[in-house]
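U., I forgot to send this yesterday:
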Amino acid sequence: MAAVTSDGVSAPLPGRCGFYVVKKKRYCKMVVGKGKTFCGEHGNADSDSERKRIPCPLDPKHTVFEDSLSKHLKKCNSKEKPKPVYYVKDINAGSVTEEEIAIDEVSIAERSKEELYRLIQKLKTAVKGLNTEPDTSLLSHPALNEALNDPKNGNFAFKHLKQQASILGNMEALELLGPERCYVEFGAGKGKLSHWIHVALQEAENVHFLLVERSSTRFKVDGKHKNTDSTFDRLQVDIQHLDLSRVPFLQEKQLPVIAVGKHLCGAATDLALRCLFERSAKDKDNEPPTKRIKLQEGGEEVMQGSESSEEVVVSGLTVALCCHHRCEWRHYVGKDFFRERGLGATEFSAFQRMSSWATCGMNRVKSSLNPEKSSHDIKYEEEGEEVEHEGSSENFPDHLNNAISAEERERVGRLCKMLIDHGRLHYLQQRGFKPSLRFYTSWDVSLENVLLTALPS
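Result:
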């Protein structure tokens, strides 16, 4: 009889755990202690073990010895970390009435032809008098010339570089590139937009960057600028909870802020606008006094509680928009704009779902031009090496296919996007800014090709 090979599938690898992981169809590869058969995580499988392992109360995805639980809880990585001074829960979330909360979400598939026709008619009435065809401003910037002409960059990278070059070109045209400023990149991801702004402003003095991103990101490019005169400060926080006026760096530098973003997804755009232009409703006089606490015994004292906060001076905004189907009425800044047109949360919910028809239609066109490409390929090509944006789950139902043609759906989808964006323009106008929408890149480069800009009036 042939000997069983220790390959980790038919038998455990030498010195590794003897627990068979059914889901992975192989044995666990964790190293075991001397004289042990199972690793610590699978110690319960050993009937002879004197110590029992239980799921961690903070994160049941891992286990811990029951008799070491109290010690583990003090150092568990899942333990909630102290919130930074600029974290204020839901400060930018917006609000809704009880009546609006009670409104049921209705998918497109659940609507009848008559309902859709009525919604489309409401949409067309609402956009009357609005500029639904923004100017085209396909620009570039010399800071990216070398990268754009580098043959080592593939098609995906080239498309992102073209978008970044056009954003910088539009910023330069608006005189938003210059010294003595702090650029705040919302939804920064790897920080590539800030990187190129820094390259463009290498000769400028006192230029700094704040990169706001809620998730932990690998391969960040801001690490390349550690030895430069510019500061690259990264804030790992959801925009919904960010109070810019409490950020120590901004308090210290007192520089005007230029807000930027590339494909700021759905509601994140509205959260960013609230973050920039609205302050907490809480009265400063009612805030608790500043406290000094020690994070750990013998550690350095840190300040928590109330911080003296100054108004953030916003000198400009340049944000590439996307994913209108992920907008939310609670966060949306254009509620007044909608209400002035006799619209509310119900219509907004329908329009944000219908907005996905614009890009879904273009995917259909791309598919016809490139029949060998799958929808996943097109999606990946659209988002490239950056974080993929979640597509809409609103598939057009079969029973409505004959009611509205594909071309009409695309047009309706674009009108939905424009109506939502005009609500944002209205919001910025009410706050003393001169906003605009412009096509900053072509459809073949990005399906989401609208840039929102704003300058003080």
